[in-house]
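note to self: dont lose this again. the chain is below, predicted strucutre after it. 159 aa total, dont forget to put it in the shared folder this time
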Amino acid sequence: MKCPFCGFEDTRVVNSRPDREGNTIRRRRECDECHQRFTTYETREEITPFVVKKDGRAELFDRNKLIRSIQSASNKRPVSQEAILAFVADLEASLQDQFRREIRSRELGDRVMDFLKAQDHVAYVRFASVYRDFRDVGEFVQAITRLQTDGGDEPVDAP
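---
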């Protein structure tokens, strides 16, 4: 690490400790040339994955877009904001932990549908209708019938 005071290229670590959350390491360093001390912080490199769409296009994962779509499906339903935010945070953390550089939109949508199915069936069907591009009332009926008969374990597929 280069010394910010004299520019000397050799410094040594005098003290290291993690922050309270364990996400950052604080290091006290001392320059071997001018003997000045300074602090550095080390964090894990965050990877923003790409979402690969059905048509092959890729766009950066946007947590706010995902939150808005879940909120839209959950509007006026008993799905708490805290549950939505926790789900999205867990999803992001799992992508980071797996060092995933991309995720298919289908996998992302399926994970959201699993979350909503556990939270509220109406929000689940609302999301499925947009995500699976329902074209008529029959597809709604089919999705609702699956939920009533087997808990909705089968995916709701578009025609």
